[in-house]
Amino acid sequence: MLTGQCGCGAVTYRLMSEPMSVHCCHCRDCQRQTGSAFVLNALIEAERVNFHGPVAEATFPSGSGKGQVVTRCAVCGVALFSAYLIREGKLRNVRVGTLDQPSACPPDVHIFTASKQPWVMLAGDIPAFEGFYDIAQVWPQDRLARWAALFGP
User: CENP-V/GFA domain: from which residue to which, for each copy (predicted)?
Assistant: First the structure.
């Protein structure tokens, strides 16, 4: 069971299962929205994330054009989760850095590396894609089954 919290501890959360995948996204939207070179998101069904505490949500641009909702602690402003509106709120992207043990969720894949910062070096054993990718070619069968349960085959 993975747990996490915001910077001030006002919002705590628990993941009710392992994530389906952990994405290290290097797109310019993620760089700008996090103020960093990339974001590390653990993808999990929204219903499998239980959280408590005051949150505030804001919508930001995304590559799909439909936007994403970022959930932050209403007290300290730390971003905890995001949800792409193209996925109808069924999937939650948990910001790995807010986990109590972020080392439990290393990246499974690097995405949008075409816009990664040139000084970021990628490990050769983790798949990397210039844009998004075909999850059927990367994810294990059990994780694909969870995806299919949310969005269909």
Answer: 2-120
